[in-house]
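User: I'm curious whether this sequence folds into something compact or stays loose and floppy. Could you predict its structure so I can see for myself?
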Amino acid sequence: MKPTRRRHEDARPAPRDERRGEATRRDAGRADANRRGDIRPDARRRDEPARDERTRESSRGEQTARAPVADGAHLYGLLPVVEALRAGSRRVERVTIAEGAHEGRLHDLFELARAAGVPVRRAPRAELQRMAAPGANHQGVIANVAAVAYRDADELIERLAARVGTAEPPLAVILDGVEDPRNLGAIVRTAECAGVDALFIPERRAAGLTETAAKAAAGALEYLPVARAANVARLVEDLKGRGIWTVGTDADANIDYTEWDWTQPCALLLGGEGSGLRRLVRERCDALVRIPLHGRISSLNVSVAAGIVLYEAVRQRTTASESAYTQNRTTGEGG
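Assistant: Here's the prediction. I'll summarize afterward.
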């Protein structure tokens, strides 16, 4: 029994003064190790992990604000967007700001966007969350980044007008609210293949020239000039004033697309997915044409509709060109 009692006596805790001295020595050892930089993670105080975590979170947020984070289609964070606008090295096409964002810190962004002609809109924070890539810290500011540069709308209009009355009448495409970038890219590809001279898209509430659109276009954006229109209805009036017929597609139109004379200077207008042309735009068109549907589905994909109508224009123009060539040759031989 004595050995047992001795073991219990050995297991008794040290006196309080001895424990205090031991704790002091441990703290001094930690301090020395911390100064040397070799302190073990499990030797830190209980409140240090939380403090370190807060430091890491702050550091991550600071890095996001400083680095120009992008996913190919968007740029996230106030400072990256401001620097992109200031440098002009990235093609920023639109900036979306969360509703309720502090006005004071957005002053530079508003000024730079105004100077660059970049539209700025406000949206609920939930919408920005849907726009952002997984894990992106948008800080209430997201910029849509274009894959290629837009052309000047006025310049393209003048180029189209210069072709009116010539042997090669202009052919343009105007999109009124196409929101899917894949549809936009497919239309760009078809338009370029059909020999379209210019394509116009709205500044707001429409897909832009993102990487997704560029991929769907399969290189066509390198050849087809695309411009943004601040007001599609006004653009229609502008083209009409320069002798270009504006022809919209509408399911309720009385004219089939094959009945329209596409050998004239024309601009084809296509509406957004599901909604079609907006009323104000539709009312300003010179004519409305329809694509007959014989199945049970009531509409075509907008990119498919574009291909159908544009290649009718190609057919008519090719036929007219061949007829003119034959007639000129016959007249020359007869003379």
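Summary: The domain at 153-325 is CATH 3.40.1280.10 (Alpha/beta knot). Residues 1-13, 33-71 have pLDDT under 50 and may be disordered.
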